[in-house]
UniProtKB/TrEMBL annotation:
Pfam families: GlcNAc_2-epim (PF07221). Belongs to the N-acylglucosamine 2-epimerase family. InterPro entries: 6-hairpin_glycosidase_sf, 6hp_glycosidase-like_sf, AGE/CE. The keyword DNA damage does not apply. It comes from the Bacteria. One of its GO terms (biological process) is carbohydrate metabolic process. GO terms for molecular function: isomerase activity. PANTHER family: N-ACYLGLUCOSAMINE-2-EPIMERASE. Gene3D superfamilies: 1.50.10.10. The keyword Ion transport does not apply. This is AGE family epimerase/isomerase. Keywords: Isomerase.
């Protein structure tokens, strides 16, 4: 079987798991009586009472809509009720998104963090199926509130409002992702401006001269002192690589596209070479800035980013090795999906190769669906090229 065929078969397996196991479970047990999404399900498939983080709700909305695009049967009433619950419980008078509520909707954390705003913007790009044109109006209003409240005086954005003095690359990554989603949905020109700003910050600040994507910075955009400033996450090497490759396909300037493509492929190569434990076939949690291992445990989400990165790299480079690595990454992910209750997942794999038996976090569903969608899209592009060539 060719690497492309291996990737095609791997994608088919994930789509079947999504349609036959995950969506039936999470659209029932994963939704409470109010329509809001549960934070986690136990390995028996039952919800576990927990605070409800704002970031999880829009991620679940995306997962449902994305799964429907991939062929799963999704009840639109679940999407509508989930969106209504989110807008009712989490939107502050300022228009920003609060961090957390309890099971009954009582406010537990009224603070606003950039990460949560980014995911609300991201999900709204898919909410035209529910809101129609109002989705774009809502996103533009939230974007204005975010750019006003979180703007850093030098570059980029604060991580919290009010600022706490710590700057992070990760929320910028998800804001970049939201901007790309809106560009692809034909949003207004300000989304492109936002994407260009974050792209420039990534190339000039987040990625160091050795190709390491830094996570934490001080208020002057210097790597944070101590260990925090040295952490490099293989999952984010892959995720930023995937996003920069997407931007390269949208950029108006050929030189910009070329620079982003070069940086992206370097990020992905470093993630694969230094961040993947070949024995376990998993991307580990963290390296240091010299690319030595720091945290050999492996969470689920980096495996999904490895899939996305290699799938798009296969299209951008035409190299079969990326299809082979994408298929390998799917095999790595599938180990986390081998639960006694179909449709769940494990979140953490120990350095010794043992899955930790704990509740399945709903937050992982976004990562899984996004990986399946990215792989499916890349395969469709490959098939189109093959038809044209023949």
């Amino acid at each position: 079987m060719s690497p492309l065929d291996e990737a095609r078969a791997a994608c088919g397996r994930l789509k079947r798991w999504l349609a036959e196991a995950a969506i039936p479970l999470w659209s029932q047990a994963g939704v409470d009586a109010s329509g809001a999404f549960e934070e986690k399900l136990g390995q028996d498939g039952r919800p576990i009472a927990s605070l409800r983080r704002a970031r999880v709700q829009p991620r679940q909305l995306y997962a449902l809509v994305g799964a429907e695009r991939l062929g799963a049967a999704v009840d639109q009433r679940t999407v509508r009720r989930g969106l209504a619950a989110f807008l009712t419980r989490y939107v502050k008078a300022s228009g920003l998104i609060r961090a957390a509520v309890d099971d009954d909707g009582r406010v537990l954390d009224d603070s606003a963090v950039l990460y949560d705003q980014a995911f609300a913007l991201f999900a709204l790009a898919d909410m035209d199926v529910v809101l129609g044109p109002a989705a774009e109006v809502s996103a533009e209003a939230l974007r204005h509130a975010v750019l006003t409240a979180f703007r850093h005086p030098v570059a980029g954005f604060h991580s919290t409002f009010p600022p706490d003095g710590v700057l992070l690359s990760n929320p910028h990554m998800h804001l970049f992702e939201a901007a790309l989603a809106w560009i692809e949905a034909d949003g207004d020109g300000e989304w492109r401006d936002l994407a260009m700003e974050i792209k420039a910050l990534a190339l000039e600040v987040f990625i160091d001269d050795e190709g390491a994507l830094r996570e934490t910075f001080d208020d002057a955009w210097r790597p944070a002192p101590g260990l925090a400033g040295r952490i490099v996450e293989p999952g984010h090497q892959f995720e930023w690589g995937w996003l920069l490759l997407r931007w390269a396909g949208l950029a108006d300037d050929p030189a910009d596209a070329q620079a982003c493509r070069k940086a992206a492929l370097r990020l992905i190569e470093i993630g694969e070479r230094h961040g993947v434990d070949k024995g376990r076939n998993v991307a580990i949690n963290a390296l240091l800035d010299d690319f030595s291992p720091h945290d050999a445990q492996a969470r689920l989400w980096p495996q999904t980013e490895r899939i996305k990165a290699h799938a798009l790299a296969a299209i951008e480079t035409g190299k079969a090795e990326h299809w082979a690595l994408a298929a390998q990454a799917v095999c790595g992910l599938e180990a986390y999906l081998a639960t006694s209750t179909p449709g769940l997942w494990f979140d953490r794999l120990t350095p010794e190769g043992r899955m930790i038996d704990e509740a399945a976090p709903a937050s992982s569903f976004y990562h899984i669906v996004c990986a399946i969608e990215a792989l499916s899209t890349a395969l469709a592009r490959a098939d189109t090229r093959l038809r044209v060539a023949s």
